[in-house]
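Flavin-dependent monooxygenase
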Amino acid sequence: MKRHNPLLEDLKSVLPEIAANAEHAETLRQVPKENIELLKKVGLHKAFLPKAYGGFEISLPEFCDCIAALAGACCSTAWAFSLLCTHNHQMALFSKQLQDDVWKENPDAMASSSIAPFGRYEEADGGIVFNGDMKWSSGCDHADWAIVGFLRNNAEGAKDYCFAVIPKSDYTIDDDWHSMAMKGSGTKTLVIKDAFVPEHRIQKAKDMMEGKSAGYGLYPDSKIFYAPYRPYFASGFAAMALGVAERMVEVFKEVTSNRVRAYTGAKVNAATPALMRLAESKHQISAARAFMEKTWDEHREFAEAHRYPTREELAYWRTNQAYAVKMSIEVVDRLFNAIGATQWMLDKEAQRLFRDCHMCGAHAYTDYDVCAQILGRELMGLDPDPTLL
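Tokens:
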């Protein structure tokens, strides 16, 4: 869908430089500083920053179009930067005091995360003392804060899934990211020891899904902050897979147009199998994009109407994304399997697209085996399975 998106137009001006840095990102095992500077130059980091701190508060469909385009240039950069951006939406649902802590003196500040509830804590006067080796923190080298997850005992004797926001001065980074894919995302471990977290930097995940958090209603004219945090947090995964698959279509065309078979000299560009693979892949990725654009538009419409989704609607939003990632992987596999052995070389773009697209489907949120169960139970009227994320 063609939509007015000035931020996307600005982003396109720096994509060639980011694409040229893709191999460098993999060598560094983190997003190059130059890429971060280019993206901040066009203002992508302000996508979900509250206007009160100079942000843009663009719609989710506009943001996802940007992330898809960025992923086509360098998916590692898109992975890390998408999360750094969406965390702004999450922090805008925290208290005003926390937001001032993060953005008042530095509106360009961003946060990485490790939100699985593996943190350990002790109650303290006015907050908690946090400890933990918090893994999978993408883009942490370029973050000023971290959002970390833990389970906190409540008055009823149960546990609340909570988030704590911690400044980079209170943790160190363990450089342990040695991965087969998303090599340049810098998804490292945060080592946190005895960090005091005041109460105003803590929020329950459930409250942030139901419009009950400390920041709810803080921006009455906003079109994006009357929305649960999780769909925004996870929005980039399908966008990245789409962008990679769309780029693979173009790479396949480029490679195949000049390819000849080594032993026979036959031209591949007019061979029926290549044409059929290309045609089906184009149809499939177009269908996946249309499917996600409809879902992203629903997110936008709900937020603008200050309407929170039902459990059924959330189940569809979650699982629609995973299915779009699944279709994107099928596109990439279909084309990569017929693109020729030369494209397996590490200096070739196609093999990087192949690896990164599969990583998009490996995230806990986009695991289609999990998502199919979630939607299947919802369709059958069964209660949600608490063992499924």
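Residues 199 and 322 are 35 Å apart (CA to CA).
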